[in-house]
Amino acid sequence: MVDVKRIQEGKYDLITIVGEVDASSSIELDNAIAEAIKSGNKAFLVDCTSLEYISSAGLGVFMSYIEDFKKNDIHIVLFGMNEKVRNVFEILGLDQLLTIRGEKEEAKSAL
């Protein structure tokens, strides 16, 4: 079960993920990112503080947008991952393709 919320905070959109992103719930994450891109905003923060688990389907959502981010000059920074979630991103090399920071202030500075 996952809850994904998107709000605008100043010059960036904040996408907050709460719970577990798996095959059945990854569509919610996909929809939130798609809506954020459609909004025309060029800066996104993804709050992973309450993200407890992410499956390959959830990781696939981020992977599917990497080219869109580059092509449209969109800056996205993920932050607040617990060690287990961060390890999954690192094992798959996504930490090399996406910007990941520890805290929100660090993420805001990386935009």
SSE blueprint and pairings:
Layout: E1 2-9, E2 12-21, H1 26-38, E3 43-54, H2 56-71, E4 75-79, H3 83-91, H4 94-97, E5 99-101, H5 104-110
Parallel strand pairs: 2-3, 3-4, 4-5
Antiparallel strand pairs: 1-2
Distance linking N and C termini: 29 Å
Sheet of most strands: 5 strands, mixed
Strand content: 25-35%
Structural class: alpha/beta
Total strands: 5
Distinct helical segment count: 5
Sequence stretches where pLDDT stays below 50 over 5 or more residues: none
Report the mean per-residue pLDDT as an integer.
Answer: 95
Order of helices and strands: EEHEHEHHEH
Which overall shape is indicated by the principal axes computed on the Cα atoms? globular
Major sheet: arrangement of strands: 1-2-3-4-5
Q: Radius of gyration, rounded?
A: 12 Å
Helix percentage: 40-55%
